Amino acid sequence: MIAEQFDFIIIGTGPAGFSAAMTAAKCGKKVLVVEKEGSLGGVCVNTGTFPSKTLREAVLLLTGHLRRQVFEEDSCVIGTTDISMDKLKRRLQYVRLKEHAIIDHQLLRNGVKLVRGAAAFLDDHTVTIETIGEDGTLTARGEYIIIATGSKPRNPPEVPFDDRRIFDSRSILDMPTIPKNMIILGGGVIGSEYATIFAALGVKVTLLDRGERLLKFIDHEITDELQHHFPNGNVEYIANCGNFKIGVEGELAQITLENGDSYSAETLFFALGREANVGGLCLENTGVKIGDGYYITVNDLYQTSVDHIYAVGDVVGWPSLAATSIIQGRLAALNAMQKRSEAFPKIFPVGIYTIPEISYVGMTEEEAREKDYKFVVGRCSYEELPRGQISGECEGMLKMLVHRDTREILGVHIFGGGATEIVHIALMALCHNAKIDLFIENIFNFPTYSEALKIAALSAFNQIERDQCLCP
Ligand SMILES: Cc1cc2nc3c(=O)[nH]c(=O)nc-3n(C[C@H](O)[C@H](O)[C@H](O)COP(=O)(O)OP(=O)(O)OC[C@H]3O[C@@H](n4cnc5c(N)ncnc54)[C@H](O)[C@@H]3O)c2cc1C
Ligand SMILES: NC(=O)c1ccc[n+]([C@@H]2O[C@H](COP(=O)([O-])OP(=O)(O)OC[C@H]3O[C@@H](n4cnc5c(N)ncnc54)[C@H](O)[C@@H]3O)[C@@H](O)[C@H]2O)c1
């Protein structure tokens, strides 16, 4: 069989693969994209980012979560309204289908060839594709190949997943009904986001983690705020859970901890991390090396150990975000074409879509202390923020870490409405080594959530001035 020749073969249509394909196609390259699933967009569109964020918005709308706070209405949801899993699933599917069509159309109009099927390497330049349709097995040769195969939930074999009582992040949204109670194992991003979403829906959630606190990597004051404001008080957090055994007892899922404590619920959601999709790629037919945790090893240009094979997105490990995968895909394609030299940004924001949401950029207070920085913390509470009062979002805060001598902003951490949007203003400030004066001297729309940045900057300014007066 003669293999068709391409400038680029890209394996996977998640954010990493899609962005690589578009970058190469816009530069006039002949591009083949291979996708093994029937639907385009990867975990991002089908089981991860899109569905979880769509569920969050749907739950906020249908339960009237904010409205209930503003008008002090009762919080009980299940059984009192027409919210059902079927209704939620219809909304998730509508958004997925819209996105599939957008991706399909954008690839088509940019001349990218799309083949649906599983790709595997024959050698360093050739892949075979077991197509889903009637085309059988195809072979293609690429001058460059970009692996963007993503990740899947890390599911240990001893956990009896049955997609009826015990679920992972792929299957949780296929639950037939909304349970009255749920155990979530894992206080990482997935566990914390879903815990607050289901809690807002009226589900009693028991959230277990082996760590002392949720979301260990974020500023501790922000996690404390999250734990104090769990929606409807419906989340019980159990820290330091230790080893566990998971089973089923009648119709209930059950988890027993090493200290003997046992918890049962209609649903158990296992959310303990993810692992790279490298199985089935036949990487042994290439010189591509796999490193710690089975992630593909890459250099700063996203080249694997074979110069013309690149890898991007979740398959290379941290930070494993849709946000960062998009830029990695672009960088790999640009580097292969030797177009221009851009580097992965040193500073980037993280958005966590709990209810209320969290976002941050830059150093945490704990990091600033460890590094012995001289800093002050400027704060703004949403209770005192006009926009917070008006919108009924009084649960929230913004803290700004500021260097005491230079007045440069070191980090911004936000918990509350608009957090994942306003963080980008802070990002721009950090990228330009801005001082708090930038926020103090410029005019912001009023009333806005962004004003929290101005108030926190003023609060930091006052502390610096006061300290300078005390110690001239
Ligand atoms: C529940 C959840 C919520 C999330 N929320 C967010 C969020 O809010 N914000 C954020 O930035 N990130 C979020 N993420 C992370 C984000 O979804 C991932 O970082 C992102 O999808 C990774 O993109 P990717 O292109 O590397 O891989 P993926 O999106 O996983 O896509 C990989 C694609 O490759 C295909 N593939 C695999 N092997 C082959 C093969 N051999 N041949 C052909 N095709 C193959 C797969 O079918 C898949 O379509 C979330 C993840 C989860 C699980
Ligand atoms: N908003 C976002 O950007 C977003 C949202 C969801 C997911 N994601 C991506 O998905 C990835 C995976 O998320 P995740 O939450 O599954 O993984 P994670 O690695 O973030 O969290 C896993 C959690 O499980 C805990 N844990 C691990 N082993 C344990 C054990 N044996 N017993 C008890 N607790 C244990 C860890 O302490 C950790 O808190 C994230 O790293 C992130 O990249 C991003």
From TrEMBL:
FAD binds at K53, T149, G150, S151, D314. GO terms for molecular function: dihydrolipoyl dehydrogenase (NADH) activity; flavin adenine dinucleotide binding; NAD(P)+ transhydrogenase (Si-specific) activity. Residues 349-456 form the Pyridine nucleotide-disulphide oxidoreductase dimerisation domain. Keywords: Cytoplasm, FAD, Flavoprotein, NAD, NADP, Nucleotide-binding, Oxidoreductase. Its main location: cytoplasm. Residues 6-329 form the FAD/NAD(P)-binding domain. GO terms for biological process: 2-oxoglutarate metabolic process. Binds 1 FAD per subunit. Its EC number is 1.6.1.1. Its cofactor is FAD. The keyword Ligase does not apply. InterPro entries: Class-I_Pyr_Nuc-Dis_Oxidored, FAD/NAD-bd_sf, FAD/NAD-binding_dom, FAD/NAD-linked_Rdtase_dimer_sf, Pyr_nuc-diS_OxRdtase, Pyr_nucl-diS_OxRdtase_dimer. One of its GO terms (cellular component) is cytosol. It is found in: Cytoplasm. NAD(+) binds at G186, G187, G188, V189, I190, G191, S192, E193, G273. Belongs to the class-I pyridine nucleotide-disulfide oxidoreductase family. PANTHER family: DISULFIDE OXIDOREDUCTASE, SOLUBLE PYRIDINE NUCLEOTIDE TRANSHYDROGENASE. Conversion of NADPH, generated by peripheral catabolic pathways, to NADH, which can enter the respiratory chain for energy generation. This is Soluble pyridine nucleotide transhydrogenase.
